[in-house]
Amino acid sequence: MAEIVAIKRVADTPLRVEADGPLLRVILASPPANALSREMLKRLHEAIDRASTDGAVRVVVIGAEGKVFSAGHDLKEMNGRRGDADRGRAFFEETMLACASLMQAIVRCPKPVIAAVDGLATAAGLQLFASCDLAVATDTATFCTPGVNIGLFCSTPMVALSRNVGRKQAMEMLLTGETIDAATAREWGLINRVVPREYLNPVVTKYAQTIASKPASTLRIGKEAFYRQAEMPLAEAYDHSVRVMVENMLARDAEEGIGAFLEKREARWED
Questions:
Q1: Under DSSP, is residue 1 helix (H, G, I), strand (E, B) or coil?
Q2: What is the H or E stretch that residue 243 is in?
Q3: Which residues, including other chains, have CB under 8 Å from residue 122's CB and lie 6 or more apart?
Q4: What is the pLDDT of residues 16-33, one digit of tens each?
Q5: Among 21, 117, 122, 169, which has the highest number of CB atoms less than 10 A from its own CB?
Q6: pLDDT of residue 83
Q7: Distance between CA 115 and CA 97 in Å, rounded?
Q8: Is 103 helix (H, G, I), strand (E, B) or coil?
Q9: What is the CATH number of domain 216-263?
Q10: Residues 242-247: contacts with CB within 8 Å, 24+ apart?
Q11: What Pfam families does the annotation carry (predicted)?
Q12: What is 3-212's CATH superfamily?
């Protein structure tokens, strides 16, 4: 049974955070839209920051209640600021920067982050799960970047989207605003697995527990190296990865793990 360690309910933007052994479940609990309001962005960022420094947390799982994973930014909240003296410019900029900061925090989090997607993930909602390291979706989940349909190109979701799928596929989604199904999303590389709804939590939990059983220090080293080398030219990426590999080889857990493998015994991780 998961222990509820924090519940934040501010206005209509609740976020539920549960400790489940080595897993930290972060649940968007503001149906029907699970919109990424300013308050929701703040609470999500706080949860990721907490997970990053909490030694008891090995893996983070981001999910949502209801039939929509997340419909993206709270457009009512944003449109309500058009009456400001600057027509909302400052609020829009602060919101987009807060969202960008959250997505980067997920990528930079030293703990693996898995998205459990059920229902529609659209615009910044797609950006949220696409920023995670892994994503499992139900077979009825759907995905889109529909900003073009309302005159607002999904430029910030584009950053995460274009780092997950090919350019032609990303541009198809961005230019048409059309929805793709879970099978297409998996074919394009946007998600890892497609499962029936009743299997979503069991499959995600199994994924998370498998990852949580690995040495935390190795996961941290590997995740950081993966994203850093992905931003580098080929030769620079290899130079960086060689340095990381050497330091990793000298780490206590690598010495123990290799020794255990050669001696055909269970490894004893120090983390």
A1: coil
A2: helix 234-250
A3: 68, 70, 71, 72, 143, 144, 145, 146
A4: 999 999 999 999 999 999
A5: 117
A6: 94
A7: 22
A8: helix
A9: 1.10.12.10
A10: 247/221
A11: ECH_1
A12: 2-enoyl-CoA Hydratase; Chain A, domain 1 (3.90.226.10)
| Complete edge-to-edge strand list for the sheet that includes strand 113-117 | 3-8, 15-20, 23-28, 59-64, 113-117, 134-138, 193-195
User: With contact defined as beta carbons under 8 Å apart, do 59 and 211 qualify?
Assistant: yes
Contact of 44 with 8, CB cutoff 8 Å: no
Which residue numbers in the chain have pLDDT < 70? Answer: 1-13
* Cβ-proximal residues to 265 (8 Å cutoff; 6+ apart), any chain: none
Give the closest residue to 94 by CA, choosing from 71, 73, 108, 69: 73
Beta carbons within 10 angstroms of residue 64's beta carbon: 26
Exposed, middle or buried by CB within 10 Å (0-12, 13-18, 19+), for 13?
A: buried
Residues 59-116 have pLDDT tens digits of 999 999 999 999 999 999 999 999 999 999 999 999 999 999 999 999 999 999 999 9
Q: Report CA-CA distances (Å) from 100 to 53, 106, 107, 163.
A: 20, 10, 11, 14
Please state the φ and ψ torsions of residue 191, each to the nearest 5 degrees: -135, 160
**Residue 182, C-beta contacts closer than 8 angstroms, at least 6 positions apart:** 137, 138, 139, 140, 141, 142, 143, 191, 194
